[in-house]
Design brief:
about 240 residues; alpha/beta; Rossmann fold; RNA_methyltr_RlmE; cytoplasm
Length: about 240
């Protein structure tokens, strides 16, 4: 069960909140980020449990709420770096005792290897990326996870368009590799999924919901869309051709 870290984790050993002074050459935004990291209970708990990032708890909490990983055997992790979600997947599959599980991850950023998973350092939008992922999967996926987000520019509309573009590319891939009944999970920004993208999901999945896990910082604009019950590629094609 994914339990939130204790509140005392937000403070130093003395029980006082850690404050960071602005050093010469360090931007104010960098100082604020560092202070937030030092006072974040999820960051401390991730270190304690050996996770590479606090984001691991987002997947743990989403799985607890939606039972995403129950019965899954093949999973794709898009935007996997630094590997927190992949670590959670390996742990869950190891506990299940199944021998034929397959975890494939991809990110444009380098990642240290994770035993029990195949990781690719490549831009997911590269033309050859989908084929390489499918070759490693060796069969249809039960779940496609996407924690991808475009680098922020500071311009909200631009950031939204770029991140939703990644979500759309991830959905295209998911609809190509998912087993009927499979699940697609992707990061979106505040306001939820764009209308056209949401309409496509509702056509090809039996359930589409939005969630913001507790591990997602309150001030963050990120949400997640959970599309479950994939209807299958043949049905998807029929839906697209319908008037």
């Amino acid at each position: 069960m994914a339990r939130p870290p204790e509140k005392r984790g937000t403070r130093g050993r003395s029980g006082l909140k850690v404050r960071v002074r602005t050093a010469r050459g360090r931007k104010l935004s960098s100082t604020r980020w560092l202070q937030r990291q030092l006072n974040d209970p999820y960051v401390e708990e991730a270190r304690r449990q050996g996770y590479r990032s606090r984001a691991a708890f987002k997947l743990l909490e989403l799985d607890e709420k939606f039972q995403l990983l129950k019965g899954a055997r093949r999973v794709v992790d898009l935007g996997a770096a630094p590997g927190g979600w992949t670590q959670v997947l390996v742990e869950r599959f190891t506990r299940s005792g199944q021998k034929d599980n397959k975890i494939v991850g991809i990110d444009i950023l380098p990642m240290d290897p994770i035993s029990g998973a195949d990781l690719i350092e490549m831009d997911f939008l590269a033309p050859q990326a989908p084929d390489e992922l499918k070759a490693l999967l060796g069969g249809p996926a039960d779940i496609v996870l996407s924690d991808m987000a475009a680098p922020t520019t500071g311009h909200k509309q631009t950031d939204h368009i770029r991140t939703m573009g990644l979500c759309e590319a991830a959905l295209d891939f998911a609809m190509d590799v998912l087993e009927p009944g499979g699940t697609f999970v992707a990061k979106v920004l505040r306001g939820g999924t764009d209308d056209d993208l949401l309409r496509r999901m509702k056509l090809h999945f039996s359930s589409v919901r939005h969630a913001k896990p507790p591990a997602s910082r309150p001030e963050s604009v990120e949400w997640y869309v959970i599309a479950s019950g994939f209807t299958g590629k043949s049905q998807a094609l029929n839906d697209q051709s319908a008037p």
